[in-house]
Amino acid sequence: MGELVTAAKAVSPSVAALSEDQIDKTLFDGVTAALDRFSRYSSPDVARDQRAVRDGFGGIGVTLDVSSEEFRITAVAPHGPAELAGIKPDDRLVAVDKVPTTGRSHSDVVHALRGPILSPVEITVYRPGIAQNRTYHLQRELVILPTVTVSRDSGIAVFQVTSFNQNTTQQIVEALGSLKRDLGPRLRGVVLDLRGNPGGLLDQAVSLSDVFIPNGPIVSTVGRHPASRQFFEASGDSVAPQIPVVVLINGGSASSSEIVAAALQDVGRAVIIGSASYGKGTVQTVLRLPNDGELTLTWAQLVTPSGYFLHGHGVVPTLCTSDLGDDDGSVQIAIQRAAASPPGLPAAARARARASLDENAWSQLRRSCPARPGDHEIDVKVAKRLLADPVLYSQAVHAITPGQNLASAPAAAAATPGEPALTGAGPALSSSPRNP
Predict the structure, then answer these.
(1) Of 255, 257, 275, 322, which residue is the catalytic one?
(2) For domain 148-422, which architecture applies?
(3) Residue bearing the bigger pLDDT, 49 or 342
(4) Which of 222, 315, 334, 404 is the most buried (most CB within 10 A)?
C-alpha cells in the first residue's frame, strides 16, 4: 500500500497534494467498502472520540451545552476534578489554559479540556449572579461517561442504559447494591430499559447478563477465524439471581442490547416488552493503526442460547406493544395479553421453536411485532404493572413464545489480546463532543 501511494504521488499532482490523513481514509474506505457495512476505518480524530466513549479519557468531568454559541456547563460529574474544585452547573466556560473559548468550535474546546491523566489544566469560568470570572487550576483524571440512569417507583427500579462502555455493568451493580440496602425486601423488581441502545462492548453485555442469570449460557460467537469462536456462560456469581426483571426493547435496540434481551428471554429470566429489535448480530474487532486511527472489522456472528443467529432476526418480545398507544385502554390490552398467555413450560422445553424457524418464518414472526422507534410510555407502564403483580409477572415470564433451543456450545477460544470486541451499530459508537 505504501508503494502504491508513493507511485501515485509521483504521477498525480492531485494525489501528491492530499494530506496523509486524506490518503489513509481514501485507501481504507476502499478496502472496507467491499466488506459489510459495519466494517469501517476511523480517522485519528474520530478514533480518539470512539476510544473515549468505550474506555474513558483524561478530563475534568463536565458536560457542555452544544445547542448554543456559549459554553455553558450543564452537568458536573460527582467527585470529579471540576466538582471538587467548586465548578457548578450553569457556569460559563470562558477560557482553557488562558485561550478564550469565544469563536472556537465545541469539538475544539472539548479536546482542549481533555488530555493525559494527571496533567494540569487551567479553567476560567463566568458564574451568573456573581458577575465575575474565576480561574481554577485542575488536574485531569480518568473520566468514564455514564451510560446508566436510575429511577425508582414504589419498589421498582428502572435502569435506562444508553450504551455499553467499560463501566456499564459496574454502574448497575453499584446501583443495585444501594437499592437493596435502601429497600431490602421492598425491592419488587427491575426494569432494564434498552430502547434505542445501539450496543457497545461485548464483554459488558455478557457481564450485565451475568448479573441476573444464575447459571447457563449467555451468548456464543462463531466465525471463520478460530479465535472468533467463543462461548460465554453465567459465572455462577449472579448479583441478582431472583429479582423479577423486565427488559424493554424497540427497533433501535441493537447488538449488545439484543445479547442481553435474548439471553434473559431464552433462559426464562425476564419478560421482554416492546417491539422487535434492530437485528444487528455481528461482532467487530478493533485494530489500532500506527497513525492512531482504527480499523474496525466484522469477524463473528452472535448466536443466542436458543441457537439462532441474532443477525437479521433480532429479538421478538414476549409481550408486544408495537401496535398499542400509551393510553390506559392500551395498557389494559397489554395486561390482558399477559394474563392470557398459555401455561408456562421449562425454558429448555420452550426452546425448540425459535431455533428451528426458517427465514420465511422469521419474517412472519418479526412482522407480527414490527420494530418501531421511540420510547413509548406504554412499555414502562406495563412493566411496572407486571412487576407489581407477582402472579401476572409469573404468567408473562413463562409465556410460550417462539422458542429457545439450548444449542450445544462451540469450543471456547481466547479473544485477540488487547483488542476490544464491539457489537455497536456503526456510527452510534462515535462520541458526541460534549463531555470533557
Answers:
(1) 255
(2) Alpha-Beta Complex (3.90)
(3) 49
(4) 315
pLDDT higher than threshold 70 for residue 106 = yes
Q: How many helices (H) and strands (E) does the chain have?
A: 15, 20
Cell representation of residue 241? 439471581
Q: C-alpha grid cell for residue 371?
A: 420494530
Give Cα 306 distance to the centre of its chain. Answer: 22
Q: Which of 49, 91, 193, 266 is catalytic?
A: 266
* pLDDT, tens digit (0-9, with 9 covering 90-100), for 290-334: 999 999 999 999 999 989 999 999 999 999 999 999 999 999 999
**The three cell numbers locating residue 133:** 470570572
If DSSP codes are grouped into helix, strand and coil, which group holds residue 142? strand
pLDDT of 372 above 50: yes
CATH 3.90.226.10 positions along the chain are 148-422
280 is catalytic: yes
Q: Which residue of the set 42, 49, 280, 379 is catalytic?
A: 280
In degrees and rounded to multiples of 5, residue 153 shows phi and psi of: -150, 110
Q: Is the Cβ–Cβ distance between 136 and 119 less than 8 Å?
A: no
User: Out of 1.10.10.10, 3.40.630.30, 2.30.42.10, 1.25.40.10, which CATH number does the structure's domain 57-143 have?
Assistant: 2.30.42.10
Write the single-letter amino acid at 189. Answer: G
Beta bridge partners of 233: 217
Q: Under DSSP, is residue 19 helix (H, G, I), strand (E, B) or coil?
A: coil
- Residue reference for cell 483524561: 58
Residue 10 is which amino acid? A
Q: In what order do the strands lie in the sheet with 189-193?
A: 148-153, 156-161, 189-193, 245-249, 271-274, 319-320
* Distance from C-alpha of 258 to C-alpha of 277, rounded to nearest angstrom: 7
